[in-house]
Write a structure and sequence with these properties.
Blueprint: E1 2-7, E2 28-33, E3 36-40, H1 46-51, E4 59-63, H2 69-72, E5 87-93, H3 100-105, E6 125-129, E7 132-136, E8 139-145, E9 153-158, E10 163-167, H4 189-192, E11 197-201, H5 206-209, H6 220-229, E12 234-238, H7 246-257, E13 265-268, E14 274-276
Parallel strand pairs: 3-4, 4-5, 5-6, 10-11, 11-12, 12-13
Antiparallel strand pairs: 1-2, 1-14, 2-3, 7-8, 8-9, 9-10
């Protein structure tokens, strides 16, 4: 599978010269194999993916972790949605009361957006998922609720030889005085276990996290602890705070890694990164 990162930022797009390297667009990642294109989240990064959409592809499957604005912001700017010949499936978490359509329409309808979701030329098909397992083309996908405010999913995407795990918004340390503890009690563990590549929330420093406990995000050191527990092969910091410049992110990574030895590779996800698993 080919994994391309189109947006790495959390909470709000943060385009600026000092963020050029890691990027200013919010969460969006494509996973491709043959004619199958999965899109994980529709943050502002999805616009560029739409502009560079592989020719000849007639179906796209968009998997939304949750409906916070930074993960759906780019949906109305994704060109394949305006192609009547494109088959579009949008997967998203089941809500407590309202349907996925009703919740997405809050944004994709006037006055917030000029076109209604159901009036888009591709007539997207909406599919609600929760603790689910399903196949799309060569991929076997598992979704599961993870710790973040509002119904939020993490994803595990497998093909015949590799595993990719995606948890952009995740606070597995919430409520645990000695994180990490038992794998069975750790949010997201089963999704990430043994993954070849994990993209994980690493929005905050320890100092930034203290007044934001319960907001649904992780410190860089908790992301590292989670990856260690799940025995992944590689973990990239993801969902960068809008206030963290390229220089600051590199400095924070070095601080988080200092005096620690991990059995897996680490890095900071950057817009434009491509991985072949
Ligand atoms: Zn987010
Ligand atoms: Zn969120």
């Amino acid at each position: 599978m080919t994994i391309t990162i189109w947006g790495t930022r959390g909470s709000l797009p943060a385009p600026s010269p000092e963020n050029n390297h890691f990027g200013g667009n919010t969460s969006c990642v494509s996973v491709e194999q043959g004619d199958t294109v999965l899109v994980l989240d529709a943050g502002s990064g999805i616009r560029r993916l739409g502009n560079n959409f592989p020719p000849g592809i007639t179906q796209v499957d968009i998997l939304l972790t949750h409906l916070h604005l930074d993960h759906i912001l780019g949906l109305g700017f994704f060109l394949p949605l305006y192609n009547p010949a494109m088959r579009v499936n949008i997967y998203g978490p089941t809500g407590h009361k309202e349907s996925l359509l009703t919740r997405l329409q809050r944004y994709l309808s006037p006055p917030l957006f000029p076109i209604r979701l159901q009036d888009l030329p591709s007539r997207p098909n909406l599919i609600e998922i929760n603790e689910s397992a399903f196949d799309i083309g060569p991929f076997h996908i598992k979704s599961s609720y993870i710790c973040h405010p509002g119904p939020t999913l993490g994803f595990r995407v497998e093909n015949e030889k590799s595993v990719f795990a995606y948890m952009p918004d995740h606070e597995p340390a919430l409520g645990s005085a000695h994180f990490p503890t038992e794998p069975a009690w750790t949010s997201g563990y089963a999704l990430a276990q043994g993954a070849d590549l994990l993209l994980h929330d690493a929005q905050y420093t320890e100092e930034e996290y203290r007044p934001r406990v319960g907001w649904g995000h992780s410190t860089m050191s908790d992301a590292l602890k989670f990856a260690e527990l799940a025995a992944v092969k590689k973990m990239l910091f993801f969902h960068h705070d809008p206030s963290h410049s390229d220089e600051r992110l590199q400095q924070l990574q070095q601080e988080a890694m200092k005096n620690n030895h991990f059995s897996f590779k680490t890095g900071i996800a950057a817009e434009g990164d491509v991985f072949y698993l």
